[in-house]
Amino acid sequence: MKALKPLSLSAALGSALLLNAVFSFSAVAGLLEKGRTQGLTAGIANEQPYAYIGTDGKTVGANVEILRAILEPLGISKVELPITEFGSLVPGLAAGRFDLIGAGLFINPARCKVIGYSNPVTRSGGAFLVKAGNPLKLHSLKDVAASGKARLATQPGSNQVQEAKDSGISAGNVVLFDKDTEALAALQADRVDVVYFPDAEIIGLLKKAEGTPVERALPFEQIPDADGKPSWNYHAYGLPKNDPAFAQAFNEQLARLRASGELLRILQKYGYTENELPPADVTAEQRCNR
């Protein structure tokens, strides 16, 4: 009888990491109970207008205010907001490094395989930030692809990366920055020609860039969906996959917040309009299964 071969170090480490991830996901069950007794942690990426560190050192933003307005009626008043890179949010939730994602996170089917989602909080289109006068006349991703030389800045791990690829933009012309402010600095320094982010972030960057020769590219042609209509992305909170009771309570309170008008009142403080509210019948389940 042959002796069993011992696992290689890399295989052993891989197995340990897999078991740790499974254990972490199991351990987050019961967030309602945990939140009421210990509080919760919600990972953020320090980006305006979603969740960011204000000038007074406190964590503020549309997503932070809405999250507290959802959780407090559920008896959860203590929420810690650890900062991480945007690309680390989904892996961080999957590994149990925090209980939910408090940043603005698009719902997409690939992420749905790894994490759960609340129902949508806002909808968003894309937007371009360019040098004053829009010298390359860029009004869509198709324009960037047709140019052949335009360098587009966006964020790793975001929907915009795939959208750029699907639109035919060469990977060599896509420059990735962890922070939107780094992308803005690259545009101001002529290291890129256009910054592509969700419209809310572009509005925030314009405020930061006040007095410098940059502008929003208008009009802007949204990428089409499968039916040829302008495509919208939907922001939601990232939730663990294995806690349906928490997800149900969270979504019920989100619906109440919207029905009362308080959701829109919070959003308007950060430059959103009623146009950014998704249709009330759009759910995370629909977006995950499309």
TrEMBL record:
Keywords: Signal. InterPro entries: Ectoine_EhuB, Solute-binding_3/MltF_N. Residues 1-29 form the signal peptide. Belongs to the bacterial solute-binding protein 3 family. It holds the Pfam family SBP_bac_3. The lineage of its organism: Bacteria, Pseudomonadati, Pseudomonadota, Gammaproteobacteria, Pseudomonadales. Coiled coil: none annotated. It comes from Pseudomonas lutea. This is Ectoine/hydroxyectoine ABC transporter substrate-binding protein EhuB. SMART domains: PBPb. Residues 39-274 form the Solute-binding protein family 3/N-terminal domain. NCBIfam families: ectoine_ehuB. It comes from the Bacteria.
